[in-house]
Specification:
This protein is mostly beta strands and 56 residues long. The chain has a single domain, classed as Rubrerythrin, domain 2 (Single Sheet), CATH 2.20.28.120. 0% of the residues lie in helices and 54% in strands. The protein contains no helices and four strands. A four-stranded antiparallel sheet has the order 2-1-4-3, with no helix packed on it. A hairpin with a 4-residue loop joins strand 3 and strand 4. It is elongated and about 35 Å long.
């Protein structure tokens, strides 16, 4: 299998004392070898924030 399941976690929520939101996504490990970063919605902060990969 060329795809990995990864977990994305909000980078801004912990700084503000709120719960970080988490999303699951996949990445192609042959093409993308760096950690995944995406802008996703955080309901606790009520805005889109940067989410980074925490688990591979």
């Amino acid at each position: 299998m060329a795809r990995d399941t990864v977990i994305l976690e909000c980078t801004e929520a912990r700084k503000e004392g709120k719960r970080p939101s988490r999303y699951m996504t996949t990445r192609n490990k042959k093409i993308t070898q760096d950690k995944v970063e995406k802008l996703k919605y955080n309901p606790a902060l009520k805005r889109r924030t940067l989410h980074k990969e925490i688990k591979g």
